[in-house]
Design brief:
CATH class: Mainly Alpha
Distance between the termini: 36 Å
Structural class: mainly alpha
CATH architecture: Up-down Bundle
Pfam family, one: MFS_1
GO molecular function, one term: transmembrane transporter activity
Number of domains: 1
Helix content: over 70%
CATH topology: Growth Hormone, Chain: A
Shape: globular
Number of strands: 0
Protein name: Putative MFS family arabinose efflux permease
Organism: Bradyrhizobium huanghuaihaiense
CATH superfamily: MFS general substrate transporter like domains
Keywords: Membrane, Transmembrane, Transmembrane helix
Largest sheet: none
């Protein structure tokens, strides 16, 4: 009878815990979908608006580069805020930055201010930096065996971002004549505000500075070959995705293709980025992160190869779709590697360090893409992508069998 009472008393607690886990993952997935529209709007319009406002064509992609700078600069501060005040506080601050990004960009377009538009995309990057921690937050709130699936489930929310973002651009870009894309950024700010409402209900385990200080020094963790491999693969996957996606809309415009075609191309690209996430976690569990990363890098190589075959709409769409799938396998696989490299008390610092390195390096790709496109053309941009791919594959071969560090 006593055992029966214990079981009866335990079951509701266990059931409530599972419901809380699922609720958190669902909220984070929905927020990922809404927040992904922020990034998609910037990538779809940043280079085009930059070309309209910039003093020279070489600076056309600078707003997108500034967006990436905002991501890179805010990954470590976002981790510190989460450690001190909790992840939910960080999420709400990020969503507020997303609202601010839309309002500043709106003002910049109305006032024809290129540098003010860059300031708006910077705050968009701040928002995107916080969104990146959604995947790790989901992994933190479930059992270790379910972490790859929770991580990929949140990333799967980006499938809807692939529809929301491009359709938002298509249906609003001409609403406020003569200010092209002005209404788009009003919509982007509204979507960010809705994301904040959803994130307010997230309940996650607290991250405390005292807990994190019990871990190993960060420099020791960063020296692990497995961590180095994870960072390299994450850097190359995201660097090339950003490098090619930043240049693609402007390249399509320079090839005489309509903006609607560029919007649809980005829509399928973003869907391709996140749709495989429904299965990526299971594939990682079955085949291992290294194998999935290798497949991702091969798909990115196929993307560049297809792009070199022609400049029709179909070539651009196929390039962007393959690029999205390759990024999904490469980046989620690399993120799963990061989870193997830290102990529970070290997670906030290690995850923030990983994202800082990934997006700090990615900044250079954003800065280069616009100048290379305007000076040498789309084919040169595509051909340059093979060098980092080769470096990542060599690293994968060299370090893939190195054992992961033990975790408590």
């Amino acid at each position: 009878m006593q055992d029966g009472l214990q079981i009866a008393g335990f079951a509701p607690d266990a059931s409530a815990s599972v419901r809380r886990e699922r609720g958190n993952v669902i909220r984070l997935a929905v927020a990922q979908a809404l927040a992904g529209a922020n990034s998609t709007v910037v990538y779809a319009t940043g280079a085009v608006v930059g070309d309209m406002l910039a003093p020279t064509t070489a600076l056309a992609t600078l707003p997108v580069s500034v967006f990436v700078v905002g991501m890179a600069l805010c990954t470590l501060p976002a981790g510190a805020v989460a450690e001190r005040y909790g992840r939910r506080t960080t999420f709400l601050l990020g969503a507020g930055s997303g609202v601010l990004a839309g309002l500043i960009a709106l003002l910049a377009i109305v006032c024809s201010s290129f540098w003010l538009f860059c300031a708006g995309t910077f705050f968009g990057g701040v928002y995107a930096a916080v969104v990146l921690s959604f995947r790790f937050a989901a992994a933190d709130c479930v059992a270790a065996a379910r972490r790859p699936r929770a991580l990929s489930a949140v990333m799967a929310g980006g499938v809807f971002a692939g529809v929301i973002g491009p359709q938002l651009v298509t249906h609003t870009m001409n609403l406020w004549a003569p200010y092209l894309f002005a209404a788009t950024f009003v919509g982007q700010a509204a979507v960010a505000a809705l994301s904040a409402v959803i994130l307010a209900g997230v309940e996650l385990p607290p991250l405390t500075a005292a807990h994190s200080s019990a871990g190993r020094p960060l420099v020791i963790i960063a020296r692990q070959p497995r961590f180095i491999l994870a960072v390299i693969c994450g850097v190359v996957s995201y660097l090339l995705m950003n490098f090619l996606m930043t240049a693609a809309p402007l390249a399509m415009k320079l090839c005489g293709l309509p903006q609607e075609s560029a919007n649809l191309g980005l829509q399928w690209h973003v869907i391709a980025m996140y749709a495989p996430s429904f299965w990526t976690g299971r594939l990682i569990t079955r085949f291992g992160a290294s194998v999935i990363v290798a497949v991702g890098l091969a798909l990115i190589a196929a993307s560049s190869s297809v792009g070199l075959l022609g400049i029709d709409v179909a070539h651009f769409w196929a390039t962007l779709s393959l690029l999205g799938i390759g990024w999904n396998f490469g980046f989620i696989g690399a993120s799963a590697m990061v989870l193997e490299c830290h102990r529970p008390e070290e997670k906030a610092r290690v995850q923030s360090l990983n994202d800082f390195v990934v997006f700090g390096t990615m900044t250079f790709g954003s800065f280069l893409s616009g100048g290379l496109l305007s000076s040498f053309g789309w084919s040169t941009v595509l051909m340059l992508s093979f060098a980092p791919l080769l470096a990542a594959l060599l690293a994968l071969i060299g370090f893939s069998f190195w054992p992961a560090a033990p975790r408590s």
